[in-house]
Amino acid sequence: MDEPALIQDALEGDLNAFNTLVLHYQDIAYNVAYRIMGEPGAADDAAQESFISAYQKLHQYRGGSFKAWLLRIVTNNCYDELRRRQRQPVLPLKPDLPDGEILEDPYWLEDEDATPEEHSEQAELHAAIQKCINELEIKFRTVLVLVDVEGLDYQTAAEAAGAPIGTVKSRLARARERVQDCLQGFWELLPENFRHRDEKMI
Amino acid sequence: MNHQHHTNCQDTIQQLNAYLDDELDPQLCAQLEAHLESCTDCHIVYNTLKKTIQLCQSDGEEVALPADVRQRLLASLGLGEVDDTE
Ligand SMILES: [Zn+2]
After folding, report:
1. A105-202 carries CATH number 1.10.357.10
2. Nearest chain A CA: its distance from B49 CA (Å)
3. Are B59 and A126 in contact (CB under 8 A)?
4. What is the ipTM metric for this complex?
5. DSSP letters along A59-119, please?
6. A189: nearest CA in chain B?
7. Contact A176, B52 (CB under 8 A)
8. HSE-up (13 A, CA, CB side) for residue A49
9. What angle do CA A64, B72, B63 make, to 5 degrees?
10. What's the pLDDT tens digit per position in A24-35?
11. Contacts 24+ apart (CB under 8 A), A102-111
12. Domain limits of chain A?
C-alpha cells in the first residue's frame, strides 16, 4: 500500500483512495475503540464515527503517521462517548478480598454469553486481564491499550493519545503498576512464575 | 555505598518500562542490565513487570470489525463494498 499516494489522492477527492485507507486501518481502529470502551456495541459506534470524522477532517491531516492521526480521532471519540456516559455510575468490578483468599465461583468473572468450554482457566485469566484493564482510568487505559495491546511505539502512541512522550511513559508505568496490583486479586489464575514476587516478599 | 545502591535501584526501576519496550537508550541498557544481574530486588521487579506486560499483550487478540458495522460504515461514507485483499 502506497500510503502517501493514497492520502494525496484522497485529499484530491478520490473516494476509492480513502476507501482503501479505511479498509487498511478499520481493524486497528475498531480494536482500539473496543479496548477503550470495553464493550462491542459502543466500539461499533466509536469506530464508525471515527472514520466519518476522519473523512471530514482529512484536509486537516498534516503528514506524519496516518495511523497515529486516525487513532487520535478514535481515542477522542471514545473520550467523548465515555464522558457522555459518565452520568451513569458504574459498579466496581474488583472484589475486595483479604490477601491470599480464594474466591470460589467468582461471580464477577462470569460471562453470561460464554459456553462451558470457554470457562477454562485460560478464559478466566483473559477475563481477569480484561477487567483489570477496564478498571483503569481512561487516560491510563488508553496508553496501555495503544502500547501493550496494539503494540505501538512510544512516539506513535503519544501522537495517537495526543500527549507528550514523557506523559505517555509515566501513564504507561502507572497503568502497568495498577494492572499488576489488580491481577494479584486473581491469584489462583496466574501462571506460577508471576506469583513469585509475593512469595519472596513475605 | 548504601546510598549509591539505593539510587541505582531507583534509576533502574524508573527505566524498566522503557527497557522492556525497547525504548531505552542503548548506553543506559548496558548499565541497567549490569545492575539487574547484581541486584536480586530489582530482578524480581523486572520479572514481575515483564510478566504483567506479557499478560496485557496476550489480551491483544485481534477482534475483527463486525461485518454489519463495516457495511454501515461504508454505506454512511457513500462508499460501496470493495475488495478487502491487499
Ligand atoms: Zn536494584
Report:
1. no
2. 8
3. yes
4. 0.76
5. GG--SS-HHHHHHHHHHHHHHHHHHHHTTS-----S----TTPPPSS-GGG--TT--GGG-
6. B55
7. yes
8. 17
9. 65
10. 898 899 999 998
11. A102/A187, A102/A188
12. 1-92, 105-202
| Highest CATH level, class, for A1-92 | mainly alpha
Q: How confident is the model at residue A23 (pLDDT cuts 50, 70, 90)?
A: confident
B8: burial class by Cβ within 10 Å (0-12, 13-18, 19+)? middle
Place of cell 473523512: A55
Confidence at residue A174, expressed as pLDDT on a 0 to 100 scale: 96
Angle made by CA atoms A41, A46, A50, in degrees to the nearest 5: 150
Contact A179 B56 (CB under 8 A): yes
Angle at A144 between CA A140 and CA A150, to 5 degrees: 145
The amino acid that residue A105 corresponds to is D
CA B32–ligand 1 middle distance (angstroms):
9
A191 Cα to chain B: minimum distance (Å): 9
